[in-house]
Design brief:
Elements (H helix, E strand, L loop, with lengths): L1 H7 L5 E6 L7 H4 L3 E7 L13 E5 L12 E7 L8 H11 E12 L7 H5 L8 H11 L2 E8 L4 H10 L14 H17 L10 E7 L5 H10 L1
Parallel strand pairs: 1-2, 1-4, 2-3, 4-5
Antiparallel strand pairs: 5-7, 6-7
Amino acid sequence: MLRSLVERLPLWDALILDAGCGTGYARGELGRAGTVIGLDASPEVFAQQSGDRVMGCLGLIERAPFKETVFDLVVALDLLEHLEDDEGALREIYRVCRPGGHLVLTAPAYQWVWSRHDEALGHCRRYSAADLAKKVRSAGFTIRRLSYMVTAVFPAAAAYRLMRRRSRAGSDLFRVPEPVNALLGALMRLESRLVWNVSLPFGLSVFLAAQKEPGGHEAVQNRERSR
């Protein structure tokens, strides 16, 4: 998905914020488009990062330690579901994103799939595509792409989690045989390209790409009133 993102967005020597960067996995792809600044609330994760074009900053996205309108792209991969104030985080992302800049985020889908897996990972909620889009629009962004992801395995994964609701087990993460993993990887590569052109009808995750209008929030409101 990140490779498709870098290929499709008009990014060159961009300043990129990886919000909730964790150990910096996304930097391998994002770094090809510019300088990546990682933001995370956990000091431990920065000890595992390295790279000349990657910088880390300790802090909360809800109170982002950056000036206004500085980033060409903000990426928030599986971040919002961990935050008590997800709407406040989106407003801060809007503040630090430059006019014409982009936001790309993913989040777990469907509250009815909630399980001990979510509790083990520290989730506060799951989202429908419509709910996530509403919050992103409320922050001021214009939606460019909205789709579900992890669609191919959704029926089996959803059934599995619903069956395990009464179990005391935590996370559903486990190793799978390499041939199976290769097949799943191929399916995800296909989906990551499809979501830029086709809105998949369901899935375990929501994918959203948005843009901050050059005229800011006021331009968005004026356009909405004119419809």
